[in-house]
Amino acid sequence: MASPADFNLSQVEGGRVAVCTGDWTAILMGEANERLEAALRGLSDVTLDLTTIGRCDTSGAYGLLKAAGMAASPPKFVAKPEVTRLLELVDRAVKAEPTRIVERHSVTQLFDRIGRGVIHLGLEAFDTMVFFGHLLVAVGHAISNPRRVRWAACFSLAERAGLDAIPIVSLTTFFIGAVVGLLGANMLTTFGAQVYVVTLIGVAVLREFNVLITALLLAGRSASSFAAEIGSMKMNQEIDAMQVLGVDPFDALVFPRFFALLLTIPLLVFCATIAGLAGGLVVAWSQLGLGPVFFFQQLLDNVGPKHFWVGMSKAPVLAVIIAAIGCRQGMEVGGDVESLGRRVTSAVVQAIFATILVDAIFAVIYMKLNI
Fold first, then answer.
1. CA contacts within 13 A on the Cβ side of 258
2. Are the C-beta atoms of residues 209 and 280 closer than 8 Å to each other?
3. Are 263 and 162 in contact (CB under 8 A)?
4. Does residue 111 lie within any of the structural domains?
5. What angle do CA 285, 290, 293 make, to 5 degrees?
6. What total number of domains does the chain contain?
7. Is residue 264 part of a domain?
8. Same-domain status, 163 and 302
9. Which residues neighbour 229 within 8 Å (Cβ) at sequence distance 6 or greater?
10. How buried is residue 47: exposed, middle or buried, by Cβ count under 10 Å (0-12/13-18/19+)?
11. Looking at the domain assignment, is residue 1 inside a domain?
12. Is residue 200 in a domain?
């Protein structure tokens, strides 16, 4: 049975003996170690008899060693082998010097971090190419055998990742179009060329802002959702179970998300175009008195459908990139929540960066082609 720690100090021939009894543990030690410290303070030729104690943990061993340190001369311990080993272990831990944290700030460390970053970037690029290759194989399987495709999942994801985004995409591009109209009105009115506000709004919305704002919103909305969904399945070993059952995760998880974005992004870009032009029309009508008939006539005469198709041509490429980045980061999730959070953040950041980079590349290509 458990009993509280206690001791009995007695005088014997050749010195004093402190016989410890009970359980010297963190729970049952109580104030016995403090009383033992007071009793041994300044004494010499002391023997600590620990043969009759019950249990002893690291807290009890530390209390005994601390009390022994109050004696004028180091006391002699008489104990069972297991208690002796515990006392030696705790004594070494108490006397060990703390590990020094050396902060090195040198040119070598700088180049080491740069090198590691370059290697990590190269590995990320290689893994991305591998992922795209596997995705192309899944697309080839879907084209060769459409009955293998999980169409219910595809259209469900298309509604959730695409159609449900129409309100936020439309509202955002409406205000973007209004801001472009306000800036154009303020600048061009100074030169008496406010009629060209319509051209500015048309080119900016049809060519750039409709697809760019849509892609950025999908990068923050859908890429993070794809990474979180697939990452959670990876953590719960559901993907491993799929592979055991002979189901390819790319066919079951990646391709439906890829197809959903590829299917819905043209519709989202079209809605963004209408909303952006509506925002510009509101500003042009309220600030400059340019009515809807004049506004749309100017669009047909000076802008035309070319800029609309230029913007629309970017949409499928951006959809593939956003879906691939979100799914790839989800497939890279480890077995802990920290890895999930890291990968979701990486999915959003990489998707936004890739969207802006690809849009800039398209702008350079179309400029060289004079389109």
1. 25
2. no
3. yes
4. no
5. 105
6. 2
7. yes
8. yes
9. 330
10. middle
11. no
12. yes
Q: Residue written as tokens 């439906």?
A: 256
Tell me, yes or no, whether 195 and 337 share the same domain.
Answer: yes
Do residues 293 and 351 both lie within one domain?
Answer: yes
> What span, in angstroms and rounded, lies between the C-alpha atoms of 196 and 288?
11
Please state the separation of Cα 16 from the chain's center in Å: 64
In which residue are the tokens 């290759």 written? 133
Domain range for 177: 137-368
The last residue of a domain, from among 74, 95, 116: 95
Residue closest to 128 by CA, chosen among 316, 336, 331: 331
Residue 36: alpha-carbon gap to chain centroid: 54
Distance CA 162, CA 51 (A): 75
List, in order, residues 6 or more apart from 17 with CB less than 8 Å away.
9, 10, 46, 47, 49
Core vs surface per residue 102-115: b (16+ CB within 10 A) or e? eeeeeeeeeeeeee
Q: How far is CA 237 from CA 222, 243, 332, in A?
A: 22, 10, 13
Tokens of 214: 């849509």
Which CATH number characterizes residue 39's domain?
3.30.750.24
Q: Are residues 63 and 151 in the same domain?
A: no
Q: Are 37 and 71 in contact (CB under 8 A)?
A: no
- Single pTM value for the model: 0.67
Give the C-alpha separation, 206 to 170, whole Å. Answer: 14
DSSP class of residue 72? Answer: S
Contact 205/180 with Cβ under 8 angstroms?
A: yes
175 and 285 assigned to the same domain: yes
List the chain pLDDT tens, one digit each, 371 residues: 678 888 888 887 777 888 888 888 888 888 888 888 888 888 888 888 888 888 888 888 888 888 888 887 888 888 888 888 888 888 888 887 776 766 666 677 788 888 888 998 888 888 888 888 888 888 888 888 888 888 888 888 888 887 888 999 999 999 999 998 888 888 887 777 778 888 888 889 988 889 999 999 999 888 999 999 999 988 888 888 888 888 888 888 888 888 899 889 989 999 999 999 999 999 888 888 888 888 888 888 888 788 889 989 999 999 989 998 999 898 888 878 888 888 999 899 989 999 999 999 998 998 888 87
